[in-house]
Amino acid sequence: MTKITDLKGYCYPLTPAGRSSLVGNPPWHYATEYTVIAYRADPKEVARWLPEPLQPGPEPDMCYAAFSRWWSVWESGGDMPSINPGRTQYREAAIWAGCSYLGVPGQICLPIWVSADFSMARGWFMGFPKKLGEIMITEYNALNPAMREVGVGSRLTGTCSSHGEMLLKGSVLIQRTVDRSELPAPLGRPLFHIRHFPSIVRQAVPSVLELVSLGSENWNWDPVVWRGEGQLQFLPSDIEEHMSLKPIEIVGGYRFSNGYTFSGGEVLHDWRQELLDAEMPSR
Q1: Segments forming the whole domain that contains residue 107
Q2: pLDDT tens digit at each of 283 positions of the chain
Q3: Contacts of 205 (CB under 8 A, 6+ apart)
Q4: How many CA atoms lie within 13 A of 87 on its CB side?
Q5: Which of 121, 167, 169, 213 is deepest in the core (most CB within 10 A)?
Q6: How many whole angstroms separate alpha carbon 212 and alpha carbon 256?
Q7: How far is CA 90 from CA 4, 93, 106, 140, in A?
Q8: Which of 2, 246, 214, 16 has the alpha carbon at shortest distance from 108?
Q9: Is there a cis peptide before residue 53, judged by omega within 30 degrees of 0?
Q10: How many domains does the chain have?
């Protein structure tokens, strides 16, 4: 008789050998190349995305859109890039906003689209509200006679579409290098995210509904951080709700790369317990 403990894997599918999991066990290791456009949005609209005990950040109108290329492996999958490179590479487009928790400034990822299923699933475990999308980002190869190395004068563009709808388009015209300490808030601040998994029981409270913080370590930074003029366009959708976060003023555009390890997070607040307590009859 098979017991549940006989089935293995970090996540679905659980199998006798445990080799087929969509995502392997953490820690997870990442390297990322970002094209970022920082901007100001309507602070009242941003606040509508932040459930208590989250609060607006010190700069309640500051947001940024990030178009990014990712390379990732989990701890036991260091050889995956040579076994199946498609399981280690993907692209994302995301809208981030500043926030705070108990007076600690942070940031939260709001709408986000990703090009690979394993990244979407892993994001849900971490509290990223990922959906599948098609993301394109400018790539130059200096060996192409009509191209040049990325540098001053380069224009880098990112686009995001999903289910046939074009949603985001942003670009950065590189003008100079800056120190990474000059990256605007909320870039670089702690990550506060909402983990949500619904119950299979009809009208029951979610099985998981919690505010978490995400940690990271083993940071590596490319010493070159580019800054320039940013442009950002939000396109309306019949499905998505990103337009409430649309830019009012562009702060600037940036291009940078880094790498790090995610080894776990911390639960800060449990909304599920609040909902369960509210359902209990008063005595």
Answers
A1: 26-279
A2: 999 999 999 999 999 999 999 999 999 999 999 999 999 999 999 999 999 999 999 999 999 999 999 999 998 888 999 999 999 999 999 999 999 999 999 999 999 999 999 999 999 999 999 999 999 999 999 899 999 889 999 999 999 999 999 999 999 999 999 999 999 999 999 999 999 999 999 999 999 999 999 999 999 999 999 999 999 999 999 999 999 999 999 999 999 999 999 989 999 999 999 999 888 665 4
A3: 199, 272, 275, 276, 279
A4: 16
A5: 167
A6: 26
A7: 32, 11, 25, 18
A8: 214
A9: yes
A10: 1
CA angle 24, 256, 25 (to 5 degrees): 10
Residue 193 backbone zone (phi > 0: left; psi -120 to 50: alpha; other: beta): beta
Distance CA 30, CA 166 (A): 27
Q: Report angle CA 54, 58, 62 to the nearest 5 degrees.
A: 90
11 part of a folded domain: no
Beta bridge partners of 41: none
Q: What are the backbone angles phi and psi of residue 92, rounded to the nearest 5°? A: -135, 155
Q: Residue 202: which CATH number?
A: 2.40.400.10
> Per the structure block, which two tokens stand in for 97?
């906003």
CB atoms under 10 Å from CB of 169, counted, come to 20
Q: Is residue 10 part of a domain?
A: no
- The identity of residue 162, as a single letter, is S
Nearest alpha-carbon partner for 20 in 10, 29, 30: 10
- Beta strands in 16-88, from DSSP E residues, in sequence order: 28-40, 54-55, 62-74
Evaluate whether residue 152 is within a structural domain.
Answer: yes
